[in-house]
Amino acid sequence: MSSTLPVKYPKPDAEECIGIITGRVEARRVPLVEYIIDDVVMAPIVETVLGRQWTPQGADRATKTAYLNTMIEFWYRMGYDFVRYEESLPLPDRRNAVADTAVGSAKKREWTDEHHGMIESWEDFERYPWPVVGDFDFSAYEHLNANVPDGMGVIFSHGGGIFEHLSWIMSLEGLSIALFEQPDLVAAVAERLGELMVDFYKQILDFDRLVAVFPGDDMGYKSATMISPAHLRSYVLPWHARFARLTHERGVPYFLHSCGNVVPIMEDLISDVKIDAKHSFEDAIIPVEEFQSRYGDRIGVLGGLDLNILSGATADRVRDRVRNLLEMCGSRGRYAIGSGNSVPSYVPVENYLAMLDETHRFNGRL
Asked: Are strands 108-112 and 95-99 parallel, antiparallel or unpaired?
């Protein structure tokens, strides 16, 4: 079976893509969506499928520009209607790291210290090097917005959400204790983070090719939310509601990526935060088709190909599952196909390409 990739004559239509997801446009196709695609997966595709040299992201402007141009070409020729991009304000936390074991990866895998944060007291709060949004370099956002091909849009966000940075800066253990022993400190950290992100979003909402805001904020694990729904309602969700309000005032939708079991707060996310679509699904928690049957008449549903299948199954098994999702979820509308979480370094390239190829075949893009 020959591949549809790279797409020979891409015809991106970001307006139609967003219209399908939000239910404003009849679904004549199933758009592709992705949250993050790891460079370890992108690099060999760029070199072997697109036939161009891979340029890793560097600190100098020329190298960074070359990387961004390659990223645009990748998303364009793989058949997406947009490029998604995020960067975080410099919000330091305590981190651990080990070498990535994925084949072909020279990077490190990092995770935050779960036991000791950089803010454990009011003294720490005052000493913390809070960033200034005015000092942040938005040049990557500017370049992508100015250089995506006709028909494509950009989807931007801040890197990491309120809960994530709150639990990273204070540590998950420290946050859990502080919620009961120092709730005023938790509120102050959340307030500072929220105001910084509001100022950040006010900057990126000005871009004329922006078609959606799509942040990530992982608030759950396999069986529950990371902290109680009541605490999320107090310290986290009001900020998402504010971000969504700013986004909607700009006339674009607000999508949310959140891993884990967030069913206990789904009504809050839909009715109070007013998200327009939800991303990140795991079959062991709630399969995407079940989620769609519950909530798909009210919000868009993004992705859903379980990462265990995308990373560990055969390419044929990936195709079978993709076809099933396209036929079931795609036929209901307000759906875009993609991974259940992201495309990390350990996803086999052939499996990722199989997901895209099967989608293009379903959509008649041969």
From this structure: antiparallel
- Token pair 């795991």 is at which residue? 282
Cα gap 332→328, rounded to integer Å: 7
Calculate the average pLDDT of the chain.
96
Say which DSSP state 61 is in.
Answer: H
Q: What angle do CA 187, 191, 193 make, to 5 degrees?
A: 120
CA distance 211 to 213: 7
Q: Return the H-helix or E-strand segment holding 69.
A: helix 61-77
Instruction: Scan for tokens 């994530």, then name that residue.
Output: 164
Q: Is the pLDDT of residue 83 over 70?
A: yes
The neighbouring-strand residues paired with 254 are: 213
pLDDT band at 108; cut points 50, 70, 90 = confident
* DSSP codes, 198-244: HHHHHHHTT-TTEEEE--B---B-SSSBSS-HHHHHHHTHHHHHHHH
Q: Looking at the predicted structure, is the pLDDT value of residue 95 above 90?
A: no
Residue 111, phi then psi, degrees to nearest 5 = -150, 155
Q: Is the pLDDT of residue 71 over 70?
A: yes
Segment 206-224, tens digit of pLDDT: 999 999 999 999 999 999 9
CA nearest neighbour of 259 among 310, 217, 299, 202: 217
19: exposed, middle or buried (C-beta count within 10 Å: 0-12, 13-18, 19+)? middle
What's CA 67's distance to the chain center, in Å? 19
Domains of the chain are 14-362 (3.20.20.210)
